[in-house]
Structure formats: structure tokens, C-alpha cells
Batch of 3 targets.
Target 1
Amino acid sequence: MKRLLIPLIIFLLMVSGCSNAASTNSEKTSEGSKKLNIVTTFYPMYYFAKKVAGDSANVELLIPNGVEPHDWEPTAKDMAKIQDADVFIYNSQYFELWAEKVLKSIDTSKLKVVEASSGIKLMDALESADEEKNTASKDPHVWLSPVLAQQEVNTIAKALEQVAPKNKDQFQKNAEALNSELADLDRLYKETIDKAKKKEFVTQHAAFGYLAKQYGLTQIPIAGLSPDVEPTLGKLAELTELTKKKNIKVVYFEAMTSSKVAETLAKEIGAKTEVLSPLEGLTKEEQQQGLDYMGVMKKNLDSLKLSIMD
């Protein structure tokens, strides 16, 4: 968080000089194009907002696809984008750890701030993994449950309705269409996992607690909520014994971080490694394949089948 101090200082210096221009630009947007200016943090928030807003808004993604969100912090330019927006959408104070400090440093009187996971009972981090003490105390990865994702969509839709009530019918219609797709995805997961022979799966990053809980699976994470934290030798030895006992054949890693730890465990137990995306951003390969949230979630299910159907 120390890296945030310099951008904050630069931003505060920028605000006084840019306030008049920002005001003018805002007036042109509201009186001219009539489109909302929505700034979202990372890919799932962008996807949900884009689907709900339709052609009634310009939706921008702050954290570029391919960049690990856990390591990202906003620049002064990013903070200016948030300041100039009509709506700012983030997932949770437990994921975008910088958001609270940034929002305190800017004028939010004309900014609609949306915490998409608001109203969802978050699991304690310890429910997902033996979590490190220096990271979030709650597990924020609710977007990986198609059921909880619907709640986030509804929260976003209600917020947009408050900002642009004239477009309420469109927002509601778009949210219903997206939630119908998410309900179909939920059914696909449930019907597939109901046939599973095994219930445990091993992940490098404890991002799949909500998905596991939703469908009666057990996530066995190598590390906690922070994907770049490596387990101790003692923890790795414990996991090696456990996964051998459970005859685990697949160890999952995520494409935007190093697979070294997953490969180490896989080698110890004679398993293979596969990608299971936490959807914290689209990889270059996923973008080239034209995949979106739905596509990656279906790909995740196919990947999970390698563990639970064996």
C-alpha cells in the first residue's frame, strides 16, 4: 500500500488544475451522448457492468486483462478516471484492498460507488485456507459462483437504475437476460458435479471456496487467498501426504501466476497440472480464443471434470 502514497500526492495536485475541465467533460456527456461513464476494477466487474448497461454507458476496465489484480495499485491517472466517472464498480474491500483509501482521497459527491458483493455474506478466509495473517480476512471470490454472481448483477443493476432512472427498464431487461445465462451455467455445473465420483480438487490459489461450497465440493488449496505466497516446507509435506492418500491426479494452477508450486506438488504425487482460472482477468490466449466470463467458466468445468470424474 506504500506504493499508493505517491500516486495519491500526484493526484491531489492534479485535481485542482483539472476540476474545471472535468466538470465541462461531465456536462458534455450528460447533455450530449446521454451515456453513463462507468469505471470498473477488474474483468468480472467489467463484464457484469457491460452486460447490464448495454449501449447506455461507456464501461472502462481499470486493471488490464493479463495483469494480476492482487499486485496492482492505481496510478494518479487511474484515480482521475475514477473521479471523473459517474459510476465506480468494484467487487469488495477484501479484493481491491486499495479502493477504500482511494475513495477517501477523492470527491465522491457526484460519484455512485458500487461494491458489487454488498449484501453477500462473505466466508472467513480461514474457511477457504490456512490464510496468511497479512492478507484479507474475508474471501472475496464470490464471482466464481454462478449463483452469487447473479446477486452481484442485481446490485449493479439497481445502482445504475438510481443513477439513470430513465433507463431502468433496459437495465432490468439486460440484468434478467444475464441472470438467465448464469442460471443456465449454474444448472450445468450442478448436473455435471452431481455425477462426480470424487469431491476434492487441489488448487494453487484458494479462489474457489464459493464454487466448491455451492456444489458440494472440497477445495484443497496449496496457498491461501494471495496467489504469490508459497507454502512452507512443512505445509507442502502435509499436502503431499494428504493428496497421495486421496489419490489426487490433477493439481490446478492459474495462468497469470507462476505454476512452480503446483508443479512441485504434482511431481511429488505423480499428478499432472491443469489450468483452473479464477477469472481475475482474461489471459492473452483466452482473449485470442474469443472467450468471455461464460466461456471461461465452462472451460473451468471441463477442467474440473478431469479431477472429479476420474
Target 2
Amino acid sequence: MTEPTPSLGFAPDAEPVRVKANGVEFACRVAGPADGPLALLLHGFPDTPHSWRHLAAALAAAGHRVVAPFQRGYAPTGTAPDGDYRTGTLGADANALHEAFGGDSSAVLVGHDWGAAAAYAALAQEPERWRRAVTMALPPLPALAAGFLSYAQLRRSFYIFLFQTPFGELALDRAFVERLWRDWSPGHTEELSPVLAALGTPENVAAALGYYRAMPVFGAAADPDEAGKALTATLAGPGVPVLYLHGAQDGCLGLDAVTAADAGGAPLSGVLAHLPSGSRASVISDAGHFLQVERPVEVNAAVLDWV
């Protein structure tokens, strides 16, 4: 593993650091001092480590060794040789990357969207590896039980059902990705060439769809025990406090769906009910789904205060 010169952010022209972890060769953006506590940043769909550029710079300036992998299947990371994109496997990836980069119990884990699902799985599997965690835009699944099946949320989530069909490969092109970003982060303009490059081959597109097709609710895990394990893997592990952040204008997973279980309590109290003791949850105003690039000042401040 060849380390680049440490910087306060991702060096835009630097080659990613490549490591083998959990059977996949990962390409990772890195920043900050090599001897700092590990901060592993996991992106979601359709996204890349580029969206962590603001938070990476802030964490590196605070002394963290920041590692942001391209998730399995997103180029230049390799695709899963066995086609495994289950949530539990994503969590095992995070724990294997912790090992590959020499992390210890001072490490922090940050995940957005599918990266949040991976973070919950990693915490459930090996909580002793992590001191604290931050998740964004996807709470533990039980927190959605009261809100996901509303008409408004089902309408937003059309793509999940589309991706279960053979039409998913045909639909997931440049125009589809660009429109998702516009709908999910209203009013925000983002340079999406890194995302389009990460989904640049049919194999990469199939991998991105594989995350959704491996969801146990759609029967990808025929073994009931395996389905149960996959569902359990979306829960935060005990003893690892989590900061949960959600954009007030999230067009992917609406705040109304996330707060449906609050029962008159404080906003996101329904989320906190499914997180370990000592956790926090906050709504980021004037932010959509990709809150880390829409409101970097607010998100960076919340994360730095937490970790």
C-alpha cells in the first residue's frame, strides 16, 4: 500500500490508495496525518468519495487520518467477485478496511445513504473497532416502519422497485443520475462526472443495482436465517453512540417518513429510539439528501463536535 503525501483534503490529482479488503480491491481517497485516528467515510448511491471533500478536509485539519473508499462495485474499486452486495457484507467491508488501514478503538465511522447502512452493519458486527459513528440520510430500518409505506414516500422510492426489474440496467444512465440528484437535493448543483465515471461500465451499473436487489425484503436472501441476519445488520451495535443527521428537504427519504414515529416528541425522537444510549439526532435546515455537500459548514461543525 503506497501512501500519498498527507494533505488537508483529498489531493484531486493523486491516485487512490489501493488495498485488498474482504475479497475486493478497494480504491480509497485519503487525507490527513498517517498517524492520526482513523476516520472512515462511506458514500452511498449514486455517489463517490468526492462528496466527502469538505468533511475530509475538516477532519484532516483536526488530526484525523481520513479514508474514503469507493464502495464495492463503484470504479475504480473492483466489483464483488461473487456478486455479493448484501448489507452485512458492506459492514464487513468497513471492518476489513479498518484493519487494512491500521485502525484502533479510537476510529470513527461516517456513512451516508448506503454508507449509513454499511455503518450500522459494521457496528453490529464489530463494535469494539469504533469509538463513535455518524450516519446521514438513512436511519435504522425499524425507525422507518411507520413512514416508509406512506403514499408520498412510496412515490419518492419508485427507483427501488424499478431496480428490482430488468429495466433497471436500461434506466440507470447519465440523465437518470442527474435527475435523481436534482430531485433529492433541490436547488443544489453538483459536478457529477466522478459519479458517472464510477458507474461507467455495465458491470458497475449492475453492482449499484445489486445493493437494492440484495435487500432481504425483496427475497434476495432465500434462507430465512440469512434474511434475518441481513435485517439485523442495519441496526446500530450496542455501546457505539451514533450522531444521525437528516436534511430537512431530503427528496429521497422525506423527513415526514423519518419523523412519522416521533409521536409528538422532539424531531427524530423515533430515530433515537433505535440508536444506542448517548446518541444524538439533528435535522439540517435547507439541506436535501446530499447534505454533506449542500450544507458543509453545518455538517462539518456537527460532525467535529461529535467526534
Target 3
Amino acid sequence: MSSEAPPSWIVNEITRLGGVISGERFMELALYHGEHGYYQKMRGPLGREGDYVTAPVMTSLFGELLALQLIEVWELMGAPDTFVLIEAGPGTGHLAEDILRTAKKFPPFNRVVDYRLVEQSPPLRRMQQQRLAQAGMMDRCSWFATLQEAAGEGIEGAIFGNEFLDALPVRWLEMTKGGLVEVGVEVTAAGALTTCHLPLGAGIAHDHFTGLGVDLPVGMRTELGLQAREWMRLAGRLMRRGMVLMIDYGYTAREYYHPERMQGTLVGHSRHRRIDDPLSAPGEMDLTSHVEFSAMARSGASGGLDPAGYTHQGWFLMGLGLLERIEGVMRREGMSLARELQQTAMRLILPGEMGDRFKVLAMTAGMNCPQLSGYRLNNQWDAL
């Protein structure tokens, strides 16, 4: 139970819906409510001054290297005349700016890029448009509310996202002595919010984890990202030829449902602080859960995608030449700038930092399982 009095808007919403809702529905309200949801108002900044910082905000190197991977895919496809880039959850617009700036250095690729941003949040869309307008790139971009709208009947190109899947609402589950149950949120007689047990909703079988070879101990709470799975299936169905690439913090199924994570991975983020109580301050903090990448790979395959690569972010960026880029800066600009860049880059690749907490999953369609540079040093696909 949250120790703080919940805002009246969410109490009213839950009461209107019968007094009890699923954990997934609570996340949808807390994050995406049309007036009060966290992503719908975004009063504060993102990045170092906001609730969390993402890799593209830290350094342009991240977007530059990702652009190289996109260019390689385009070349492996035979350099088609149109190459659609769909970025899901573009955040501040930093990644789009860095990718498009890098594309300008490769004129044949730059001429064929059609950049589409999928963003539901009005404040974030305005932030992205302001940044890209200042960079003189607005004529290269178009905005859509959903992946389906952005892709139409299907595309040739790439669908990608950095820290997108983790923000999709998840089902909250708990293993009890009587079996698997869903965890919901209810309003108490005193007007507080508390969790409760509910019968399993649609889409979840009682033997779901048994089918995965996972034995959840009694008392363990965890999550099931059914919306993320459906998103990956849709991405596969919409990708006629090209790559789907998702970067996020997460685990394989074996790691995700390990008993060391007895309380699951669902947390809040506010001013760079981790908030363990997901019921506190709905609409005022980000709510995320780690991505279960084994399920993402299966879902992508059910949508028609082929395996390409899975690895830690550190290996992915080094495979694309991160260390060589730093050495080049050192030669051109001197040690002082290179040292500052190196310190930032180390956060992206070192174990214990983003390097091993973030994973990179790539799947392709119509490309005959190409060898991608981001996975040349350490492809861990078999771990999925």
C-alpha cells in the first residue's frame, strides 16, 4: 500500500472502473492518461536535469554508431531507392538528430532516408520538433501516433527504439500457494491505493511459466509484457524487408524469472531516484519494467522476423567501432577532449554501467540472416 495519499484523479478513475483494476491498467493510467499521465504532461526536462538520462542524451556517439549499423543494413539490402527509418519512442529527439546528421556524411544513403517518429505524447512531440527544427532537419521527418500509422501497409528499412519497450504497460503476476494470480490495484475504504489478487486475465494461462521451463517460487512477483510482445509481432508483420532493432535494459527468460528477482523488475524513476513502490505518485514519475528479451525474440519470429543478433550494449557499440572513434578524436582533438569523451563512452560499454544492463536485439526480414557488425564481437543469440 502506498504511504502517500493518491491524487484524486486516479482514485476517481479506479472507482469509476469498479474500484479494482489490473496492474497493467494502472500503468496505462499513470503513464498515458490524457490529462494526468506522466508522458502526457512531462512538466520537467529529460536527461541530466530530469527523471532519467538516456544514452543519446549522454553522447552523440551513440546515435552516430547506430547510424552506421543502419547504413550497413541498407547496403546489405542492395541500397534500395527508399529506406524508411521508424523510431519508436524518440524521447528528446537527440537520437534522430544524431542519426540524420551522420547520414549527411554518406550522401547516397542520406538521399533515400525517410525518417518517421512514432510519438503519442504531445509535450515530447513538441520537444522533438523543436530540437529537429533548430538542427534544420524538420523537412526530413514526419510524426505518427502509432507504429501501424507510420508503416502503413509495410516498409523496407528499419524499425528501432531505444528504451521504448520498457515503458509499455505490463501485467503484474504473483505465484501463490494456490497457483498463479494477477496483481491488481484497488481503492480502500480510506481512499488509499493497495495491491490485491485477481483471477488471471485474458492472454495468461495458469501453466504459462511451466511451459517455459520456469518454476516460480511461492511469493514471487513478476511481470509479463504482453503489449511489448504484440508490438514486436506487429513490427514483424510490417517489415517487408529490413531490420527491427530494439535497445533496452532487460534479461533472457532464464535471468528474468530467477528467484533473485522475487519482487520482479517494476520500478519508478523520479529525479534519478529509484522508487520501489509503483503506487506512489501516479502520473508524477516514470514506471518501467525490464524487457524479457526471449519473449521479444519469439514474438518477432511469430511476426515473420528472422534472428540476427542479441548482445550487451557494450559489445554492440564496440563492434561498430566505438573505441576506434575515441582513438580518432584523440589524434585530431588532443587528450583533454578525448578523455572527456572516453569517460562518457565508458558508461555506455562498461559492465555495471549501461554496457551490460542494456541489451540490443536485432531481427531481420528478407535479408537471408546477414552478419551485422554490431554483433561481430559477441553474438549471444543462443542464450535467448
